[in-house]
Specification:
2 domains; 3-stranded antiparallel sheet; 7 helices; about 65% helix; rod-shaped
């Protein structure tokens, strides 16, 4: 092994003498191949494609979690029942969307309680409302246009 070659490797990679010797011996003295091997192993350059896939997978998991939350907000409903057993189901997502008017909703709820209405939360799945299928249709349309 040539000492100038080891110095050049160290200058380019900021590696120790031992690392420089190891990588240059492994690549039979080819400086370019030694630097590439060092970068792949030490900096994770070769795993860049895997990191991108992991980020995409994490983004997919986040999207799936968000879809499940929105679907649950649609499925959970506030059931308002009067004395004659007339029930109105209001999706929880609507209550959250009108949350900026919480004071009006609170006054309406107090007024309705005084009039004898009963409130309870129930989970009623609607087969016609499927957020996951809606998102999949949007994704497929996007891929068709590209």
């Amino acid at each position: 092994m040539n000492f100038e070659l080891i110095d050049e490797f160290r200058r380019r990679t900021n590696a120790s003498y031992d690392e420089a010797k190891h990588y240059l011996e492994r690549t039979n003295g080819d400086l370019l191949e030694a630097v590439i091997a060092y970068e792949r192993e030490k900096t994770g350059y070769g795993n860049q494609k895997n990191n991108t896939n992991q980020r995409a997978h994490r983004g997919g998991r986040l999207l799936n979690a968000l879809i499940r939350v929105v679907q649950k907000l649609i499925d959970v409903k506030l059931a308002v029942t009067d004395g004659a057993e007339l029930t109105i189901h209001i999706p929880l997502i609507l209550l959250l969307l009108f949350g900026f008017a919480w004071h009006i909703l609170l006054l309406a709820a107090i007024f309705m309680l005084i009039l004898g209405y009963k409130f309870r939360f129930v989970e009623i799945s609607d087969p016609n409302v499927n957020v996951a299928a809606f998102i999949e249709r949007i994704k497929s349309k996007r891929w068709e246009n590209n």
